């Protein structure tokens, strides 16, 4: 398990005064200090980690956020922002000596502008609520994490969340145009808006995916897209994951970027089919769901081509959805993959590495070996188009040592992802979960440079410390210039 | 010109930057020099020439990724991926025609750090959206990397976004990984004739709000339309819509869009080959090119909300003689203004203050670019944050200082 920074006894000793000061900023029920009421905030989607916060604050205006942060900055108090708490990497895990800043009350959609195809929303608005609000006009918000009923746009921005459609439509970062951000010193900044691109440094781009370490997002401008005329899905079974992988490569090689392209391995297919009866074939090693969206003429044309490619790749079955119900049924299985696996195992641990797709057979084979070594089962769901793996490791937290084995298994998978040219996380974020694996992918210099950026936003390191970076450095130390001796002569480079 | 340092490899870049730091010198970072006339004309002590960092080191069409050394000519990359029926979907523009420089001279590094894009920006994004990873040398003389070579990655801060649009003021990039995408099989352009600016804005909003998946929406004034679409409705403005994809889809969407647009004005259809030339000309703003009738006049690039474009242009033309090309469904305005002491800076900034968005002076004599802000000025907490970000990467101001703003 990852260890969190030690609580500051001096801060804890002042708890009563701190709560009082916060109540002066956020009146009424906006400050929660009782153990019982704080309980729901003690962990996020990474439930293996739990920690009660010092106090929970639920502001409802940008002014309050600014005042709370300024107070914390002035008094050296740590702050952990939180949306809906669905993070799978422990990004919203509280700190014992910190304020947990819940953004749930920012749940208003401020405006919808169809002519410019944007909506301005509060960070506490759920992902699905945006699409629902504009559905009547035929629009939607493209990034669609599986947690979209619950997770918030603020959380999506902080994690740069993806979804099954992000191969074609991009991640959160490609679908937000502006935001309002409050810095830890209380300053309120605005980036972007209804126009494209930044006038100066792309600070919106850096906020997106910053896991709550740079500032608190209080408003977001998102891009709306017109719903495609139609969508159809194809369900393709294969006797080997090699064949399935080859099929994915050939589809992309043929110039087709499907709206979604998902893969499941045998254990996942079986768990899912028992749970939702989606009609998945059970005699296959790998199953692909390929969704095409656009005008009917295009979708039908491409489905024919995909059917041909699938046959070339030795598909054992190929079923095309013939109605909207059937399309949704194909997806129902994939969308229920996590709960389905939850039924066959007391606990499961969801991993999130990305690999170059061509390495899939190798990675799956190595994962089977690891599964034997750690004596834990694993089921794989996979955003096949972009190489984003979600191995679900099956374990039982009540059996001594299983959680530790499971974490070691997970870490070995992620190391393998990096080894084959991939990365530690494709969409769930580093958080606490992958924090100590960062040196597998980055050098000390890489990490220090990232932390210098953090210093530009948060000089005292008060926002969400203990997440993302394995070693905390003081900004003064990071800022110090190395003098490179012997570099005083004009460099010995050829000149014109 | 400042003393040029021609590096041979990434190590040389580190050596050169360390020398600059130790000697308190400033460096101008140059890829292939195609955009040296853009930005503030500051004085640097030496020029760091990256053009020898040349070559594609990885290209896997089925993984949609390409890695190249930063000085690799963009043209070479584009023709390489074209052979696999792929493209850089952000459609990087060529500043050559506007600036009166040789055409097609940009390096991939230059395209990325200036966050280039083209008409397809409204659908596919800009360079920032296709930039997956890099290696580079900071103004501390230290080599660092960020991102990766896979298309989906959230490990650590997304420094790629920060580098795209930093104009070489944060780091000298040495290697770049980008996402490539399949090129459309065919394309067609629908022309709506004779719309006034405000009417065109409405037509473009309607098209973008349709399921026709338009990948280019621009409005050309009559003089420009006559030049780019000769023989088509002479003397009339043209509002143009590009539709790309597989043949049956393009045919279908063109029909649906025509149906939608027929109440706006007379329609015409442009065939694939001419369509490609048209959008290349719009991308590179050739009607305002240095060799044309307005070739010596100042040019501004203004980004605003699409529905504000027409009003913004009207405000400018109230105060100065001007001509506009509207791209990005009205959200990108290329404005050429009659020459004046400040290249129309006060007028343009006043209009963006009212309508929202930001403006950059892309063409003006060096003396004027030295005098008026070229990039939209920043103030207060935002300016302070920008300065702190710069300081974190380049504390001594060794890399392209003053290129964007004085002191950055
Ligand atoms: C069943 C399940 C399925 C999932 N599927 C997907 C998926 O398909 N794709 C995907 O990408 N993710 C998925 N996730 C992960 C998770 O839902 C996303 O990371 C989501 O964006 C988190 O949003 P949240 O509102 O719950 O944020 P939280 O979990 O509350 O917080 C996440 C991070 O954001 C920060 N934060 C939250 N709000 C703000 C704010 N206003 N300002 C600054 N920082 C803030 C927090 O400090 C924390 O670091 C899934 C999770 C679950 C439980």
Can you summarize this structure?
The complex is a heterodimer of chains A (496) and B (408). Chain A has helices at 9-13, 15-25, 35-38, 62-75, 127-135, 153-159, 166-169, 203-207, 241-253, 266-276, 296-312, 324-335, 337-344, 360-374, 402-419, 438-441, 444-457, 475-479, and strands at 31-32, 55-57, 78-82, 98-102, 109-113, 118-121, 139-140, 176-182, 188-192, 216-223, 225-226, 230-238, 260-265, 286-294, 317-320, 347-350, 378-383, 388-395. Chain A has 496 residues and is α+β, with helices and mostly antiparallel strands.
Give the mean pLDDT of chain A.
95
Query: How many helices of chain A in DSSP terms?
Result: 18
Q: Please report the two chains with the greatest interface, counting residues with C-beta closer than 8 angstroms to the partner's C-beta.
A: A-B, 107 and 104 residues
**SS-based structural class of chain B?**
alpha+beta
Helical residues, percent of chain B = 25-40%
Cofactors, ions, other ligands: flavin-adenine dinucleotide
Task: Give the % helix of chain A.
Answer: 25-40%
Q: How does the helix and strand content of chain A classify structurally?
A: alpha+beta
Q: What low-confidence regions of chain B span 5 or more consecutive residues with pLDDT below 50?
A: none
Strand percent estimate of chain A: 15-25%
Gross geometry of chain B: globular
Reported CATH architecture of the largest domain in chain B:
2-Layer Sandwich
CATH class of the largest domain in chain B: Alpha Beta
- Got a strand count of chain B? 18
End-to-end distance of chain B, in Å? 21 Å
Name the shape of chain A in a single word: globular
> Spans of chain A of 5+ residues with little confidence (pLDDT < 50)?
none
**Count of extended strands of chain A:** 18
Distance between the termini of chain A: 57 Å
CATH topology assignment of the largest domain in chain B: Uridine Diphospho-n-acetylenolpyruvylglucosamine Reductase, domain 3
Biggest β-sheet description of chain B: 5 strands, antiparallel
């Amino acid at each position: 398990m990852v260890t969190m920074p030690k609580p500051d006894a001096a801060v804890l000793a002042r708890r009563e005064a701190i709560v009082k000061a916060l109540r002066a900023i956020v009146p009424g029920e906006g400050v929660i200090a009782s153990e019982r009421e704080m309980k729901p905030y003690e962990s996020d989607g990474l439930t293996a980690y739990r920690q009660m916060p010092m106090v929970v604050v639920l502001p409802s205006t940008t002014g309050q956020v600014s005042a709370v942060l300024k107070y914390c900055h002035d008094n050296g108090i740590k702050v952990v922002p939180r949306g809906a708490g669905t993070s799978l990497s422990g990004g919203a895990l509280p700190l014992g000596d910190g304020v947990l800043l819940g953004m749930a009350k920012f749940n208003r959609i401020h405006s919808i502008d169809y002519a410019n195809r944007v909506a301005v929303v509060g960070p506490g608005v759920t992902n699905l609520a945006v699409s629902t609000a504009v559905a009547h006009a035929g629009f939607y918000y493209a990034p669609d994490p599986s947690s979209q009923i619950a997770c918030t746009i603020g959380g999506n921005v902080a994690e740069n969340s993806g979804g099954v459609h992000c191969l074609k439509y991009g991640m959160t970062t490609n679908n937000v145009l502006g935001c309002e951000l409050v810095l830890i010193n209380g300053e309120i900044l605005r980036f972007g808006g209804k126009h494209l691109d930044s006038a100066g440094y792309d600070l919106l781009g850096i906020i997106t995916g910053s896991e709550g370490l740079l500032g608190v997002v209080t408003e977001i401008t998102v891009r709306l897209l017109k719903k495609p005329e139609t969508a159809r899905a194809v369900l393709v079974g294969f006797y080997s994951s090699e064949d399935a992988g080859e099929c994915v490569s050939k589809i992309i090689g043929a110039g087709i970027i499907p709206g979604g392209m998902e893969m499941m391995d045998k254990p996942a297919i079986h768990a899912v089919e028992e749970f939702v009866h989606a009609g998945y074939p059970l005699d296959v090693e790998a199953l692909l769901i390929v969704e095409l969206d656009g005008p009917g003429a295009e979708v039908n044309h491409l489905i024919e081509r995909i059917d041909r490619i699938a046959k070339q790749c030795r598909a054992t079955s190929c079923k095309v959805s013939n109605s909207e119900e059937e399309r949704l049924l194909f997806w129902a299985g994939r969308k229920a993959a996590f709960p389905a696996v939850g039924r066959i195992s007391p606990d499961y641990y969801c991993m999130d590495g990305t690999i170059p797709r061509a390495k899939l057979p190798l990675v799956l084979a190595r994962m089977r070996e690891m599964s034997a070594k750690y004596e834990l089962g694993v089921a794989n769901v996979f955003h096949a188009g972009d190489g984003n793996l979600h191995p679900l490791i099956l374990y039982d937290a009540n059996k001594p040592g299983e959680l530790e084995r499971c974490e070691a298994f997970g870490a070995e998978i992620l190391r393998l992802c990096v080894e084959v040219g991939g990365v530690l996380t494709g969409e769930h974020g580093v958080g606490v979960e992958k924090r100590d694996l960062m040196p597998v992918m980055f050098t000390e210099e890489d990490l220090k440079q990232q932390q210098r950026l953090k210093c530009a936003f948060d000089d005292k390191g008060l926002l969400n410390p203990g997440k993302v970076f394995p070693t905390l450095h003081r900004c003064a130390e990071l800022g110090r210039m190395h003098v490179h001796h012997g570099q005083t002569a004009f460099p010995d480079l050829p000149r014109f | 010109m400042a003393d040029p340092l021609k590096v041979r490899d990434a190590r040389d870049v580190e050596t050169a930057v360390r020398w600059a730091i130790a000697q308190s010198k400033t460096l101008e970072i140059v890829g292939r020099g195609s955009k040296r006339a853009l930005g503030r004309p500051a004085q640097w002590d030496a020029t760091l020439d990256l053009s020898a960092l040349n070559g594609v080191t990885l290209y896997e069409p089925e993984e949609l990724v390409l890695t190249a050394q930063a000085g690799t000519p963009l043209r070479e990359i584009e023709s390489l991926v074209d052979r696999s029926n792929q493209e850089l979907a952000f459609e990087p523009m060529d500043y050559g025609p506007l600036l009166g420089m040789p055409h097609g001279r940009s390096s991939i590094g230059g395209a990325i750090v200036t966050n280039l894009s083209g008409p397809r920006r409204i659908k596919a994004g800009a360079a920032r959206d296709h930039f997956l990873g890099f290696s580079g040398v900071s103004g501390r003389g230290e080599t660092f990397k960020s991102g990766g070579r896979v298309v989906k990655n959230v490990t650590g801060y997304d420094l790629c976004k920060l580098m795209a649009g930093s104009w070489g003021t944060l780091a000298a990039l040495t290697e770049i990984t980008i996402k490539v995408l399949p090129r459309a099989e065919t394309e067609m352009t629908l022309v709506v004739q004779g719309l006034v600016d405000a009417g065109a804005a409405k037509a473009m909003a309607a098209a973008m709000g349709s399921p026709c998946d338009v990948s280019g929406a621009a409005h050309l004034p009559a003089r420009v339309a006559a030049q780019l679409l000769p023989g088509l409705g002479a003397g009339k403005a043209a509002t143009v819509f590009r539709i790309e994809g597989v043949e049956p889809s393009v045919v279908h969407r063109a029909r649906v869009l025509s149906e939608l647009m027929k109440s706006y004005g007379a329609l015409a259809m442009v065939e694939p080959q001419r369509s490609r030339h048209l959008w290349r000309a719009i991308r590179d703003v050739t009607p305002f090119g240095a060799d044309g009738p307005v070739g010596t006049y100042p040019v501004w690039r203004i980004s605003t909300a699409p529905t504000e474009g027409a009003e913004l242009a009207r405000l400018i033309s109230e105060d100065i003689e001007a001509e506009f090309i509207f791209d990005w469904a009205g959200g990108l305005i290329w404005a050429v203004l009659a020459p004046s002491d400040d290249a129309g800076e006060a007028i343009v900034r006043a209009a963006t203050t009212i309508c929202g968005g930001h403006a950059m002076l892309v063409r003006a004599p060096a003396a004027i670019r030295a005098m008026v802000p070229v990039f939209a000025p920043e103030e207060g907490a935002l300016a302070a944050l920008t300065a702190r970000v710069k300081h974190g990467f380049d504390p001594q101001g060794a890399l392209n200082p003053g290129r964007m703003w004085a002191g950055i």
